[in-house]
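Page 37, continued from 36.
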């Protein structure tokens, strides 16, 4: 197989039978933990997922939704209850065939939140470690290990730290070592479990850009766990939102952002308010009129109109609101609402206002630099195509 290959060629690696090396296929995966008191926790509850070779897949969801368990099942660190996992056409786990490869035989790179480095060993020895285990030893000559370590350290920009003990490094530097270890092996797939959670905010943003660039350059398939939606949006080709061990929605970040299937996804991806509404009926081609808690709204429904009388939620994105030009009472047209500024927060790129509209408080980030004081009355408009309905 490909383990003795040097660096993956740019783009996708291919196995002998011509299928992309790092394509991941997960079928009907289940994993239930049994707690000490005998209660059973369904951590993974029927997951089907395909990740194309050479793409960046991000698993997003709140604490406890099963992200780490799914990653550990792929790595072979956790034994699923049933289902199957294959990478590059090679079966890693298949309950029907009672097959399960050891973590070593899966040859994946892994980067953990906790770095998982040997503190007493040098940087170089840590990076070399997976290539020097008994199982891998036959695959790499001593010279090749040295070359791979040097190249990996240079790639993550810490060539000068090779001889240092881990204990002498900062958190950000330690995570670079873990990253070097994950890529030195030349794996087709690298798994990341909240790798930047313990790193300073500033270093975090830089490192995630570097991880992205590295993935693009080396062409491995990345599966990256985070609960940070900004990180998820920036990194993902495919964003997978998990909820209680199931996939709530998977797709391109833009797709999840513009057309979330549920309030849960709308809430998790971007800044959204969801207001309750009842469908009044059609309002022209591809649009419906709804009666909502902030007034009547016309909403584009490209995917088809829900039936009249249906109870729905209207997803409102803070940045889609426009300040009406005519002042608080000037705008009375379509999708105009009138409100009062309650509070504001300066976010650098924009100012976010909390605007009371009746009993509802909306988050509003209008374009432009108008500064609105609390108590200011205003009219806001929003385009029907920027609105989205969820059940
Ligand atoms: P996440 O990484 O999304 O925070 P986890 O995969 O760690 O979630 O956990 C998913 C669920 O499984 C949670 O309810 C958690 O309490 C439970 N769980 C995780 N590991 C164990 C374990 N070793 N024993 C029992 N329950 C566990
Ligand atoms: Mg976790």
């Amino acid at each position: 197989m490909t383990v003795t290959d040097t660096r993956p060629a740019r783009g996708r690696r291919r196995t002998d039978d011509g299928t992309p090396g790092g394509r991941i296929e997960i079928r009907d995966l289940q994993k239930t933990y049994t707690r000490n008191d005998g209660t059973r926790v369904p951590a993974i509850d029927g997951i089907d997922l395909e990740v194309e070779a050479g793409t960046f897949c991000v698993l997003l969801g709140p604490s406890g939704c099963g992200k780490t368990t799914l990653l550990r099942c792929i790595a072979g660190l956790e034994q699923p209850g049933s289902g199957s996992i294959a990478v590059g056409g090679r079966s890693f786990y298949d309950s029907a065939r009672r097959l399960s490869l050891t973590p070593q035989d899966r040859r994946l790179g892994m980067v953990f939140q906790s770095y998982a480095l040997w503190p007493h060993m040098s940087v170089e020895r840590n990076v070399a470690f997976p290539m020097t285990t008994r199982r891998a030893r036959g695959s790499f000559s001593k010279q090749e290990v040295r070359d791979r370590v040097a190249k990996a350290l240079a790639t993550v920009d810490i060539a000068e730290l090779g001889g240092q003990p881990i204990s002498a490094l900062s958190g950000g530097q330690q995570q670079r070592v873990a990253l070097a270890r994950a890529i030195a092996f030349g794996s087709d797939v690298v798994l990341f479990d909240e790798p930047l959670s313990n790193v300073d905010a500033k270093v975090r943003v830089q490192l995630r850009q570097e991880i992205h660039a590295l993935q693009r350059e080396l062409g491995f398939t990345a599966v990256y766990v985070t609960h940070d939606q900004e990180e998820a949006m920036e990194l993902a080709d495919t964003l997978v939102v998990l909820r209680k061990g199931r996939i709530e929605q998977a797709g391109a970040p833009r797709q999840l952002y513009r057309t979330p299937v549920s309030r849960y996804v709308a809430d998790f991806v971007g800044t959204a308010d969801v207001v309750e509404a009842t469908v009044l009926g059609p309002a022209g081609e591809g649009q419906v009129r709804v009666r909502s808690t902030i007034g009547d709204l016309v909403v584009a429904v490209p995917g088809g109109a829900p039936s009249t009388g249906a109870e729905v939620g209207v997803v409102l994105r803070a940045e889609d609101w426009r300040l009406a030009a005519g002042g608080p009472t000037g705008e009375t047209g379509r999708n105009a609402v009138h409100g009062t500024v309650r509070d504001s927060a300066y976010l650098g790129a924009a100012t976010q206002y909390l605007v009371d509209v009746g009993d509802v408080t909306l988050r509003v980030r209008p374009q432009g630099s108008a500064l609105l004081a609390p108590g200011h009355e205003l009219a806001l408009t929003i385009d029907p195509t920027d609105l989205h309905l969820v059940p």
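The chain is about 25% helix and 35% strand. Flag for discussion at group meeting. Residues 33, 35, 41, 43, 61, 63-69 surround adenosine-5'-diphosphate (ligand 1) (CB under 6 Å).
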